Amino acid sequence: MSSRCGSRRVKFEAEIYKFDFKFECKTIRRSIFTSDEAAANEARERTGRP
Question: Residue 1 in 3-state DSSP?
């Protein structure tokens, strides 16, 4: 009985870990995207001005 509870806890922790990993990936991707966008906007402004 205790081993079943233990495996259930491990499964639960694995789900949390998966969720954290997904969230982390999204956050990293978003930060990369925003910095890229900011750089692109800056370059656009620089080239747009005479």
Answer: coil
At 29, the amino acid letter reads R
Q: How far apart are CA 8 and CA 1, in angstroms?
A: 11
Q: What Å distances lie between residue 8 and 2, 3, 15, 21, 22, CA to CA? A: 10, 9, 11, 20, 21
Report the C-alpha gap between 17 and 1 in whole angstroms. Answer: 25
Enter the pTM of the model: 0.35
Burial (0-12, 13-18, 19+ Cβ within 10 Å), 49:
exposed
Q: Average of pLDDT values for 8-37?
A: 82
